Amino acid sequence: MAKSNIGKSNASIYSALAANLLIAITKFIAGGFTNSSSMISEGIHSVVDTTNQVLLLYGLKRSRKPPDSSRPFGYGKELYFWSFIVSILIFGFGGGVSIVQGISHIRHAQEPGKPTWNYIVLGLSVVFEGTSLLIANKEFNKARGNTGWWEAVIKSKDPSSFLVLFEDGAAVMGLTIVFVFMLIGHQYQLPWMDGVASVLVGCLLVVVSLILARESRSLLMGEGIAPKTQVLIRQLAEKDAAVIKVINVLSTYQSPEEVLLMLIVAFEPELETEDITLAIDRIRKAVKDQFPLVRFVIVQPQTYPLTDAAAGHSL
């Protein structure tokens, strides 16, 4: 159970937000002057990325609201909700619009203007987006440690980290596609290649959107702590002299920095209520001390062994 890097994610989101806003304006200007659908699609891509980063920042801000009477466990899941919205926006607005526009330009291809400005804008965009991608990947690699890259994405409880990484990666790939097809179209006088590039960029965004939606949905529905961590918590609780056995460990991430944990514990049958209360306090303190992300610990006493009726009731 690793500590979150939300502060670093915030910095990368702010820098990506500023860069994407400037790049989007430049792309639209260049696309308008040169009549390039793929450049306009790239401009749409940058607008979507800018909007996504605004929504991520909003989700991060909302997720830090303190608990209140209506949300006793806090607002941490706001981040997961807005991350899911971001993934849907990439699919619907970014991918969908690019594909529709690309098909339109394939069917009604027009000779583009001088592509010089497009090449300049693409070159600058690759530099900015590539730098952002390297920074995001460096931070992600630092956070994942020795864990495999894809495994780290699946296990990550901070969607802002891999959302920025995937967005930057898709941006660099999209720019590469546009550059290659624009060069081919200009070299061989094939104006419809510009529309093909737009469609491919749209398909790329749809694929990225589906991956991000899958991960964000999983977090929104409630992912628990890793099996290895469950074993460690179980062993820690069972060290207490009052405990016979930890029957079950239930958990869910409320946010990247907050875990809600419930332990169903069988205590020694001869213990008085006061003794069980003291044991619960000891277990709660031991777990919180060793696992700082566990903010809420609920310990439910249970008889042991379970009867069929008790088992059914506990479910």
Automatic annotation (TrEMBL):
Pfam families hit by this protein: Cation_efflux (PF01545)
GO MF assignments: monoatomic cation transmembrane transporter activity
Biological source species: Filimonas lacunae
GO BP terms, alphabetized: zinc ion transport
Domain Cation efflux protein transmembrane span(s) in chain numbering: 15-221
GO cellular component, one term: membrane
Membrane-crossing segments per the record: 12-33, 79-104, 162-184, 196-213
Keyword annotations from UniProtKB, A to Z: Membrane, Transmembrane, Transmembrane helix, Transport
UniProt name for this protein: Cation diffusion facilitator family transporter
Subcellular location as annotated: Membrane
Topological relation to the membrane, as annotated: Multi-pass membrane protein
InterPro entries: Cation_efflux (IPR002524), Cation_efflux_TM (IPR058533), Cation_efflux_TMD_sf (IPR027469), SLC30A9 (IPR040177)
